[in-house]
Every structure is written in C-alpha cells, then in structure tokens.
Amino acid sequence: MKYFVRKTGFLLLTLWIAITLNFILPRLMPGNPAQAMMAKYAQRGPITPTEEHALALMLGLPTGSLWSQYWQYLSNILHGNFGVSYSFYPLSVMAVIANALPWTLILVGLVTILQFIVGTLLGIYAAWHRGKKFDSSATVLFSFTSALPYFWVALMFIYVFGYILNWFPISGGYSGSLSPTLNWNFAGSAIYHSVLPALTIFITSIGGSLLGMRNNMINTLGEDYILLARAEGLSETTVAIRYAARNALLPIVTNFAMSLGMVVGGSLLMETVFAYPGMGYLLATALNNQDYPLLQALFFFITLSVLLANFMADVIYGVLDPRVRKGGAR
Amino acid sequence: MLWNPLKPSVTPIRLQSDREDTLRKPPNFFVLLWSNRKARIGITMLFFFFAMAVFGPLVAPYSLSDTDFATSQPPTLAHWLGTTQSGQDVLTQLLYGARVSLFVGFVAGALVIVIAMFIGFVAGYFRGWVDDLLSLLMNIVLVLPGLPLMILIAAYIPSHGIGEIILVMSITGWAFGGRTLRAQMFTMVQQDYVIAAKFAGEKSLWIIFREIVPNMLSYIIANFFGAVIGAVLAEAGLEFLGLGNPSITSWGTMIYWAQSSDAMLSGQWAWILAPGLCIAGLAASLTFINFGIDAVANPRLQEE
User: The ABC transmembrane type-1 domain covers which part of the protein (chain A) (predicted)?
Assistant: First the structure.
C-alpha cells in the first residue's frame, strides 16, 4: 500500500512541477511573449490605451502580482481553461486541442501497440535463436533503423511513395474535398492518408521494442530456473514462452506504458512533415505563430499523458512483481 | 586457450610460464572492443565521420559562400548532390555541416555525461538523504517528456545559436545517464575493495575516481555515446523545426531548408537523402559501438 501512496505522491509532485515550469519559463525569459504579440499588432497602426486594454483582455494577458497570477493560473488549469489561441482566434485553446487529439491518439496509439506486439515477438524469436542468421541480421538492421531520424524517414517516404510512385497522398489527414464527419467515405480517406505516417512510426520505433526484448530475454535465459526447466525436460516452446519470455516481459511492460504515454506528443516531427492534423502538427503551428497559450497547453497535455502512463506502469509493475512493491529489488 | 591441469604439458616449462604471464595481464579494453565485429563496424564509421569533419572543408568542391550556381538543381556532374534554392552546392554544405553536427553532438553529450556523473556519483556514493533527494530530482527530470520540454524552452529563448541548443539539450538530457550511473555507483560502493579503501583512510574523491571509476569505465563510455546519440538526433529535430540558427550550416538545418523549399517535390532527392543518411549513420555508428561495449562488459550478451 505504501508503494502505491508513494507513486501517487510522485505523480502529483511531477504534475505540479510541470505546471509550474509552464508558468515560470515564459516569465524567466527576457521579453514577454504577450508583449511581443502586442508589438505585432502595433505595427499595423498605433494603438490607443483603450485598444491596448481591450487587446490585453482579449488575449487574456495576466495582471496583478506574480503570486496572484500563479494562483489564477493554477485555478484556470483545474477548470480546463487554457485561454484563447492566438493563431486560431477566436477558438479557445481547449477547442483547438480537442480537434487535434483524436487524430494523434488513433493513429499513433494503434501503431504503437502494433509495433510493440510485432517487435516483442521478433525479439523473443531473435533471443531464442541467438547468434543465428535472423538474430545477427535483425540486430544490425534494427539498430540502424532505430537510429534514423523520424522526420527524415517521413520525408523520404513522401518522396518515394508520394512524389515518384504517386501511391499515397503526401500531406494532410484526409482529402480536402471532404468534411470531417463520420461516414465511410471520410474514414476511407483518413485511412488512406494515414498509411505513410503509420509506416514511418512503425519502422522507426519497432527496433527499440525488438532490441529491448531481445536483450532482456538473453539475460533471462541465463537464469538458473531456465536451466532447471530444461533439465526437467520441458518442451522448448514451454521454456521459451512460459519461463523465459514471461519474465523478460516484466521490464518491457514499463517501456510499453511509457511509449503509450509518449503517444500524445510522441511523433511531433512526423506529423509536422505530413501536415497530419494531430498534436505534433499543432505544436509546430503554435511554434511558428508564437501562439504561447497553445504551446503551454500542448506541453501540459503531453506531460500529463506521459506522467499518467508512467504512474500506470508503476502500478502495474507493483502488482505484477511483489519484489518492487515490498521495496526489495529496485 | 584451454589449459588442462591434469594433463602434463609437453611444452618446456619456461615457455609455458611465459605464456601464463601474458595471459594474466588483463586485456586492454579497446583491444577487447575491437575484437567485437559490431564495435569494429561502428568505430570505422565514426572514424569516417570524424575525418569528414576535419578534412571535409579541404576536399569540398566549392566554397561555402559560393551562392551563384543555378538554383534548385538535381544532382549533376558539377554538383553531385545538386544545389539549394539559394544556389549553394549541397555536397559542400554536407562536408562543412559535419563539423557543426559532430561538434554539437559531442559537446552536448560531454556536458550531459559530466552532469550525469556528478549527480549520479554523489547520490550513489553518499546515499542517505542526499541520495533520496537527488534520486527524486532525477526521476522528475526523467519523466518530463524530453523533446517537448526542449521545444518549450527553446521557444522562449530569444536567440537560437549553437550554444543555446547545446545548453537546452544538456539541461534536459542528463537524467537517464544519472540514474544508471547512480545504480552502478550504489553497488560498487558495497564492494570489498571500496570498503578496504575507506578503512585505509582514503579520501572520497580519491576512492571515486581512482578506485571506482576505472571499474565502471565501460558504463561511463556507453552512457556517453548514448548521450551523443540523443544529442545528435535532438539537434536535428530542433533544427528541423526551425529552432536552431538557420544560417548555420549543419545537417539538421540542411534538412530544414530542403523541407521549407519543397525539395522533394522538385526532384531534389539527394539534398534530403544525404544529410539524413549522415545523421542516421553517425547515430548508428555510436549504437554499434555501444553494442560492442555491452557485449564486452556483459558476459551474457557476449557473442561467440
């Protein structure tokens, strides 16, 4: 029980730190981003004090002492109020994010699960047939693919499959002539547009799953209980799956939960390349337009999902492995 | 080299003891590493990239400031990798860019490992509340998502030079290495030879750097290379997003310019392919070296 209380405490602490970072960072840097925004408006013509006041209210610029601003900020976040987006004005930041989130969740989430399953199975196979042809070629190949920059793979796919072969669309999440409603036409277009982004994530992330599982499994295969299981004359598959893989999976569960947490913010660069209407592309848009309220909210949600996933991983790990819960192995 | 003590040796005694003497000397770490095939591939590749950074500008076909070639050319005989939208030679940029990319990667990697060593060692060596506090700090930094945090910080920094990029990457990237080095230090401190050194009255700094560090050198080197890989990829990502200094020529900014001038839609595949391959090759070379270090340091992963 103490273990779970400690993990909950850690979750709340890290969440508070992330929020506070979000609050402090803009105020630490020279020049106020909101003032820069005002200066931009001022370029179009002189601003009277009343107009300036109206602009400040419209953009939700902070007023009052730093301390009262901080409390205001915390209460705004608790109420899910992240202000107005500069670049999508008059939409609220929450509305903009609500539009983008499903795209990322579905695409990146599905591919992450898929690559994890395939990668882990291949990792088990490679470790079991260690030193054989598949193992040695797979480790070299996948350590190379996991070193590939995400966004670059995306660019090359666009060039080969989009530009030269003309098989797939090169940008966007759905055909521009359709409106995002739930029907087969739209779903088909969305799936068609997601092939290249999905392939990019799959190829660049499967190496990590494969190599992680392989190395864990090789370590497990050296344990005495594997030797015993073999000495007892259990079949090879039983030893491989029920004895070795099951135990080797334990630390991988954490990795998996972490990579699920990364889903929300995980493929920032890939989405930017494909102009895929998810969270990553939104982040790039916010960056280019100096849309600080949106940027902060995106960082908040990306961090929140990572922290929650991390918390879940800790809880699952604690349930699966009593040694961790009782404070033995750490 | 099997030596069976039950079987009387036929070779003269003098010769045998000679051979034993050479065997008893611990093999050099780098010799061991070189004997691993993957590490050998990695070291060779890394050497190639270093040569590129050192001699690249000397063998570059044109000057970096030459901007009066025909713009946006696909690869030709005069320009093997084509030209950019502002009329620069891509191959020349690639050769010059090696310097910036390697410099940023290795300096940021070095900074990361120094911070990681300092915090990890202090936590693992002194234990108690110092460890509790530093471990908490490491876990917090570790769990905050790296790239988004870098982007957030970089977005607020008014100027975007090489220094700023290195700084942002080092303050966000040290926690992983810190935690593994702490765990290593934690187990090392319990070893008999460290306890003996403590009883002999050695100072903490002496024990850490003369007794313990040599024994975990492989971990430190592997962590250093890991940090460089992270830095190389993160640098490319930040520059690609336009958070670097676009007027500096590095592999990351090359891709940034190629993307922003729609290079692949005008058939200039080489302009994007080449810097990306270099980034991937550099990262892969370090990964291969780390594979070798792993195989040498962890007997279970050792290859026959």
Answer: 101-313
